[in-house]
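Help needed: design a sequence for this.
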């Protein structure tokens, strides 16, 4: 890449000298092409500010050329606009990136109408780019149509010429998977994520240098998709492979790949935690924060959102290990960062602000600061209720989680009568979700029954509390049997509360229910031979 960069620089210098002496329509566009290529090369090396200057220079030259000869250079201008949108996005200037992405699509659409064979590939690339830019701004529903159209166009092109267009098809499939996941369409997201990973794996076997970065990206996307569907062991394997690939790439080129390594580390920490490997999860969570803090110091606009996400993750990992005092500071910092980001761009960052507020409420409660915990819990519910009205598929699970949290916080401050309604609403939201996707949502339904039982017990309704806990134990049984290490803490809590509630209510616990649970605990405690 460095040799190629040097060659582009030398050609650009020669063309620059020539264009000063002879500012013709033949020389100037060649200079613009050189600037655009150099911008792409610098962007690949992580030198984003330099890349942006050159991308803007190319646009200026092409616009002037199009004005002088309207029938020429439209293709070149559209390509440079795509390039500019990417450079602005890389620097966190997401609002500015949208207009050039939209203009590029409009130009390529017109060109493709006149000459489909020549310009469909370019149109597909610009649609892919536009979908990414809309998604970054939180306009995910609008992003879906261009993302789907890009896949459709590239699939047709790949059928005719696999060698030329399979890489582009894989990219569009990966983007479509990420977008469907963000829209809450998790089951639909898995197929394109798997197909993208398969395509990139084959390409990386033939040409590792060219396609290992893309394979790592696809593995990360697949890990997230599998995790959302409750397929945690498979998700961890993908997350681990992504982290290995990105670590090797970041050693060779830190500027280009450290952001991706941080993302992979964040996902790896979550994957380990979901499988009950909480001690192992802490180191990657801490490393992700360190990397993203350094990146955010250099470029706050681009990397503060990622830093906030990693801080939130670190707070959760510390809390899981009982290090609650240490967990509070990163949870508070995450809220501060997301609140500032949500003021600038509500559509993109309100979901993240709600998540961080929910977690902050839990961290405060864990430290006994229950009165302070109530306000962030209430704000999280308000934000997520509004989001769920706009997009139920994407935000109803998060709303249910926040309702559970609010119920517990209200109960802790003695407002038990008020706590019952959000607890019951959470259970009713999780029931259909657990029916549709048991692997992903039965554990949440079990937690929700646990939260409701605490509220009922606080109101003296112990028999109802016992019944709710029995339902929670039943909901969790299949996952507990399959992944005992991951779900043992939750199951142990549910069983203990169930036995206490049954005793207080003067009723006999369901021994058949408890027998199956005990068998799994016995297997877990028995040393493997």
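Sure. Designed sequence:
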């Amino acid at each position: 890449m460095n040799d190629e960069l040097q060659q582009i620089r030398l050609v650009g210098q020669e063309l620059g000298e020539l264009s000063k002496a002879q500012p013709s329509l033949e020389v100037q566009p060649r200079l613009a092409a050189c600037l655009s290529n150099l911008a792409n090369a610098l962007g690949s090396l992580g030198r984003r500010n330099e890349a942006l200057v050159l991308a803007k220079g190319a646009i200026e030259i092409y616009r002037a050329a199009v004005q002088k000869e309207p029938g020429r250079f439209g293709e070149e201008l559209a390509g440079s606009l795509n390039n500019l949108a990417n450079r602005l996005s890389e620097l966190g200037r997401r609002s500015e990136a949208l207009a050039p992405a939209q203009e590029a699509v409009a130009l390529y659409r017109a060109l493709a109408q006149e000459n489909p064979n020549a310009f469909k590939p370019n149109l597909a690339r610009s649609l892919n780019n536009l979908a990414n830019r809309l998604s970054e701004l939180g306009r995910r529903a609008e992003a879906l149509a261009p993302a789907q159209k890009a896949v459709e166009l590239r699939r047709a092109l790949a059928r005719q010429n696999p060698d030329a267009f399979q890489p582009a098809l894989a990219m569009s499939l990966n983007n479509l998977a990420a977008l469907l996941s963000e829209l809450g369409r998790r089951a639909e997201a898995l197929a394109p994520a798997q197909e993208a990973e398969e395509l990139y794996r084959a390409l990386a076997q033939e040409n590792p240098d060219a396609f290992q970065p893309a394979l790592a990206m696809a593995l990360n996307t697949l890990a997230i998709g599998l995790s959302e569907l409750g397929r945690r062991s498979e998700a961890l394997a993908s997350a681990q492979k992504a982290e290995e690939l990105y670590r090797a790439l970041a050693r060779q080129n830190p500027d280009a790949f450290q952001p991706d390594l941080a993302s992979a580390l964040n996902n790896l920490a979550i994957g380990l935690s979901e499988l009950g490997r909480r001690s192992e999860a802490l180191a990657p969570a801490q490393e992700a924060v360190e990397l993203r803090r350094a990146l955010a110091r250099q470029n706050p606009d681009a990397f503060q959102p990622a830093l906030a996400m990693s801080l939130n993750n670190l707070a959760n990992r510390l809390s899981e290990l009982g290090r609650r005092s240490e967990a509070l500071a990163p949870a508070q910092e995450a809220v501060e960062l997301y609140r500032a980001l949500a003021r600038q761009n509500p559509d993109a960052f309100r979901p993240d602000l709600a998540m961080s507020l929910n977690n902050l409420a839990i961290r405060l409660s864990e430290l006994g600061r229950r009165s302070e915990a109530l306000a962030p819990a209430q704000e999280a519910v308000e934000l997520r209720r509004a989001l769920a009205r706009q997009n139920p598929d994407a935000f109803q699970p998060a709303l249910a989680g926040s309702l559970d949290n609010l119920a517990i916080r209200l109960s802790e401050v003695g407002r038990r009568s008020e706590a019952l309604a959000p607890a019951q609403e959470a259970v009713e939201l999780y029931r259909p979700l657990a029916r549709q996707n048991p692997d992903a949502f039965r554990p949440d339904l079990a937690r929700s029954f646990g939260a409701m039982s605490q509220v009922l017990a606080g109101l003296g309704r112990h028999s109802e509390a016992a019944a709710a806990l029995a339902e929670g134990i039943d909901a969790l049984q299949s996952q507990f049997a399959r992944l005992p290490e991951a779900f043992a803490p939750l199951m142990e809590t549910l069983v203990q509360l169930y036995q206490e509630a049954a005793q207080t209510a003067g009723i006999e616990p369901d021994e058949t229910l408890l027998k199956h649970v005990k068998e799994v605990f016995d297997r877990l405690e028995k040393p493997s031979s």
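Residues 503 and 509 are 8 Å apart (CA to CA).
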